[in-house]
């Protein structure tokens, strides 16, 4: 397809042979099976290794192979793969990494339509997740752009975002394979939901009080639905009631109004069906229960000498606080605390090593972003063009390769690539 251009690298040559052979078999060539040409035409075990080329589809952002070992080609009998049952084909494709699956859309119409097939989506929803990714979004000459860093593959991929509308919007976040945006279409505040892999999107109905809000999206994979919570912005009208969109009924429901408090920031964390915000007066946390629709205050005082803090949601009801401490640049450091839900105190769980802190923040007032998913915490510093990842369970710090190649004005969030969530 002419829509997908990419350069060749030695680390991805094997997959293009796979795609060429697959397209021959499924688009009217010698063998009619979609997988008839997945292997080599010569089935002799003494056949030499095929020349490896990069697959067509997404643009790769980096040319590094990250030291991945190249596996030898597996020889497959054409007569066997030509008779592959349809359900077995779907089960095999459901286990292919999502970004390789995205490339297969350009092979032929047959494979482009298979990702909308109910049988394939059923198998795809049952396989384990590909793993967390980092999604960066920006606009280049008013054209939406998107790159995704796959943590399991340790590579950047470009996803075409030209399918989105032209009105101004910004990234809200991602959950369960869906990505949420909000913005202004003229004078109207709108919310947009899309699936980057299926290239499907739609705008949600207008809220009862259609003003700019702070939003968070939550996906429930069990019943294949999602909700969007609209709270009051730190600089917005605090008298507006909380509204919750439910995809099951396609409506916004009015809930309790947020109490009159002084918020530290508009940053929020959703953990265990609860939404948390930091408050200065009264000092502590403001919690919203999604099941009951009520707000309540938690008297969890912040650690001493905390300069700037971010709430980060973890797994199994874990809530983290990440922030810098210290009054002077030479004494500053970054710490991570976890909330004790019984005693309402913050317990220190980790501290960023000095060498990482000095590399990430060269100035005492360096602006940074912090967000998390599945006990993974990501730190970004656009001034330094660096991204740092911390695994809370393994207690391991790692740099994000190729992060400096992303535009300065990018917006970032964690993202789980999936084909099955519907907008």
Summarize the structure in words:
Residues 25-64 are annotated as: Disordered. Keywords: Kelch repeat, Repeat. This is F-box domain-containing protein. A hairpin with a 4-residue loop joins strand 9 and strand 10 (225-231). The model is unreliable at 1-69 (pLDDT under 50). The chain contains seven helices and 25 strands. The chain has two domains: 83-126, no CATH class; 133-415, Kelch-type beta propeller (Neuraminidase), CATH 2.120.10. Helix 3 packs across helix 6. It has a five-stranded antiparallel beta sheet, with no helix packed on it. By secondary structure, it is mostly beta strands. Helix content is 13%, strand content 38%. The two termini are 26 Å apart.
Stretches where pLDDT falls below 50 for ≥5 residues? 1-69
Quote the beta fraction: 35-45%
Oligomer: single chain
Distance between the termini: 26 Å
Alpha-beta classification: mainly beta
Biased composition (Polar residues): 25-46
Domain F-box: 78-123
Protein name: F-box domain-containing protein
InterPro entries: F-box-like_dom_sf, F-box_dom, Kelch-typ_b-propeller, KIB1-4_b-propeller, SCF_F-box_component
Summarize the structure in short.
By secondary structure, this protein is mainly β. It has 7 helices and 25 strands.
Give a quick set of tags describing it.
Neuraminidase; 5-stranded antiparallel β-sheet; 13% helix; 423 residues; 4-stranded antiparallel β-sheet; 7 helices; disordered N terminus; mainly beta; single chain; 38% strand
């Amino acid at each position: 397809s002419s829509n997908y251009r990419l350069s060749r690298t030695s680390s991805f040559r094997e997959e293009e042979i796979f795609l060429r052979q697959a397209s021959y078999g499924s688009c009217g060539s010698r063998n009619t099976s979609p997988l008839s040409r997945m292997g080599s035409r010569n089935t002799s075990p003494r056949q030499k290794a095929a020349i490896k080329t990069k697959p067509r589809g997404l643009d790769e952002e980096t040319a590094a192979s990250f030291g991945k070992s190249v596996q030898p080609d597996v020889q497959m009998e054409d007569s066997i793969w030509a008779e592959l049952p349809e359900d077995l084909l779907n089960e095999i494709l459901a286990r292919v990494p999502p970004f390789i699956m995205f490339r297969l859309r350009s092979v032929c119409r047959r494979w482009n339509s298979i990702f909308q097939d109910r049988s394939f989506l059923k198998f795809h929803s049952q396989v384990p997740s590909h793993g967390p990714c980092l999604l960066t979004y920006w606009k280049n000459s008013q054209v939406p752009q998107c790159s995704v860093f796959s943590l399991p593959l340790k590579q950047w991929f470009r996803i075409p975002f030209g399918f989105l509308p032209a009105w101004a919007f910004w990234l809200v976040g991602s959950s369960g394979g869906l990505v949420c945006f909000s913005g202004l279409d003229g004078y109207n505040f709108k919310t947009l939901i899309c699936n980057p892999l299926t290239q499907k999107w739609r705008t949600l109905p207008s809220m009862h009080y259609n003003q700019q809000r702070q939003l968070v999206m939550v996906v429930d994979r069990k019943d294949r639905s999602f909700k969007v919570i609209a709270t009051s912005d730190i600089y917005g009208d605090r008298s507006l009631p909380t509204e919750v969109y439910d995809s099951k009924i396609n409506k916004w429901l009015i809930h309790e109004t947020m109490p009159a408090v002084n918020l530290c920031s508009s940053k929020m964390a959703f953990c265990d069906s609860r939404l948390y915000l930091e408050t200065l007066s009264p000092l502590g946390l403001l919690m919203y229960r999604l099941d009951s629709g009520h707000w309540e205050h938690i008297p969890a005082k912040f650690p001493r000498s905390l300069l700037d803090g971010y709430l980060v949601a973890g797994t199994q009801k874990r809530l983290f606080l990440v922030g810098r401490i210290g009054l002077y640049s030479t004494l500053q450091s970054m710490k991570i605390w976890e909330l004790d839900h019984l005693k309402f105190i913050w317990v220190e769980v980790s501290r960023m090593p000095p060498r990482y802190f000095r590399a990430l923040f060269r100035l005492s007032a360096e602006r940074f972003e912090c967000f998390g998913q599945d006990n993974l915490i990501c730190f970004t510093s656009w001034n330094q063009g660096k991204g740092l990842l911390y695994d809370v369970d393994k207690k391991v710090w790692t740099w994000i390769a190729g992060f400096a190649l992303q535009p300065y004005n990018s917006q970032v969030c964690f993202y789980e690539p999936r084909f099955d969530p519907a907008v």
